[in-house]
Amino acid sequence: MFPWALRRLPGPHQEIFRHYKAVRGFIHQEIIRHKLMGPEAPKDFISCYLARITEAEDDPVSTFSEENLIQVVIDLFLGGTDTTATTLRWALIYMVQHEAVQERVQQELDMVLGTTQAVCYEDRERLPYTRAVLHEVQRLSSVVAVGAVRHCVASTRVRGYPVPKGTIVLPNLASVLYDPECWETPREFNPSHFLDKDGNFVANEAFLPFSAGHRVCPGDQLARMELFLTFATLLRTFQFKLPEGSPGLRLEYVFGGTLQPQPQEICAVPRLSSPSSGPREKSL
Ligand code: HEM
Q: CB within 6 Å of ligand 1 — which residues?
C-alpha cells in the first residue's frame, strides 16, 4: 500500500527490491536480444509485443511500450510460478494422505499409457480419474483463496447490491470452492466431485480457482497443461510416501500470498524401471 515508505525502511524486505531490479535487468536484456534477432527467428511473446509497439507508434493513446512490456513479463512470472508450484506441492501431500487415491491414479496411468510412452496433454481425455484428482487438488488447496484486488471503475449493481465507483473488490474464491451447495463434501478431498457414476470426468461450474470474467487468470490454460503433465509424469514415475519415522503430514496452510503447505519431507520412490525420457512425436 505504501511502496515509497517500504523502499526507505530498512529490513529484510529490501531483498525484494534488489531481486526486482535484477529481474527487470534480465528482461531488459531479453528485449535487446529480441530486437537483434532476424525476421526468421521463432516468434514468442516478447517479439509479438515489440511488433505491436512498432505498429502503434503513431497512436497517441497506445499503451504498448517497452516499460509496459517489462511489467507484463514480470506479471506473467509472478502470476505463474508460485501458484503452479504450490498446487503441485499440495498434490503430492494429498497423494501421501490418500494412499488409495494415489494407487488408483497410478493404475489408470499404467493401464492407459503403458510403461514406455511419455504423457501428453491430449491424454487427459483418456485419464478421467487422474484429471478428477487434479481438479480436486486445485479445489481443496484453493491456493489463490482471495483473487487479485480490483478497483471498481463505474458504479454498478451485482445481484441487486450497489457497488459504487471506487469500491475495492476482493473476490473470495474459497467461498465458491468450498460452497456446501455446490460440493458434496466441501472440506474433504473427494475426486468424485468431478466424476459421474460411470467414472467419466464431469466439470462443475463452481470450480473457479482461476476466478472468472474479464479478469480471469490469463495463464489458466498454461497452468492446466503444466499441472497435468507434471502431476501425471511424477505419479507414474514415483510412489510418494512419508519417510520412516515421520511424525505425519502437516496439513495446515501457511499464508504467503498463496495458501502454501508447510515445509515437510516426502519420499519419492521410483516405481517404473524404464519410462520414456522424451515427449511423444504427437505432443511436440
Ligand atoms: C495453478 C495455477 C494458477 C492459479 C490458481 C491462478 C489463479 C489466478 C487468479 C485467481 C487470478 C486473479 C483473477 C481475478 O482477479 O479475477 C490470477 C491472475 C493472474 N494470473 Fe494466474 N493462476 C495460475 C497460474 C498462472 C500462470 C501459469 C500465469 C502466467 C504464465 C498466470 C498469470 C496471471 C496474471 C498475469 C494475472 C493477473 C491478470 C490481471 O490482472 O488481469 N497465472 N491468477
A: 75-76, 79-80, 83-84, 87, 143-144, 147-148, 150, 171, 173, 209-211, 215-219, 222-223
* Protein residue closest via CA to atom 33 of ligand 1: 79
pLDDT in tens, 39-56: 787 889 999 999 999 999
Q: Which atom of ligand 1 is nearest to the CA of 86?
A: 1
Q: Is 68 left (phi over 0), alpha (psi -120 to 50) or beta?
A: alpha
Residue 44 Cα to ligand 1 midpoint, Å, equals 20
Rounded to a whole number of angstroms, the distance between the first and last alpha carbons of the chain is 44
Residues of the chain with CATH 1.10.630.10: 81-143+177-283
Number of Cβ within 10 Å of residue 157's Cβ equals 8
pLDDT value, residue 182: 97
DSSP type of residue 24: H
Whether 278 contacts 116, CB under 8 Å: no
Residue from 217, 221, 225, 231 to probe ligand 1 pocket by mutation (most atoms less than 8 Å from CB) = 217
Residue 279 has pLDDT above 60, yes or no: no
Could you tell me the three cell numbers for 213? 470474467
Q: CA of 171: how far to CAs of 138, 148, 155, 157, 182, in Å?
A: 17, 7, 17, 15, 18
pLDDT at 238 over 60: yes
CATH number of 81-143+177-283: 1.10.630.10
State the sign of the Cα–Cα–Cα–Cα dihedral 42, 48, 49, 50: positive
**Whole-angstrom Cα distance, residue 33 to residue 125?**
39
Identify residue 70 by its one-letter amino acid code: I
Q: How many Cβ atoms sit within 10 Å of the Cβ of residue 121? A: 14
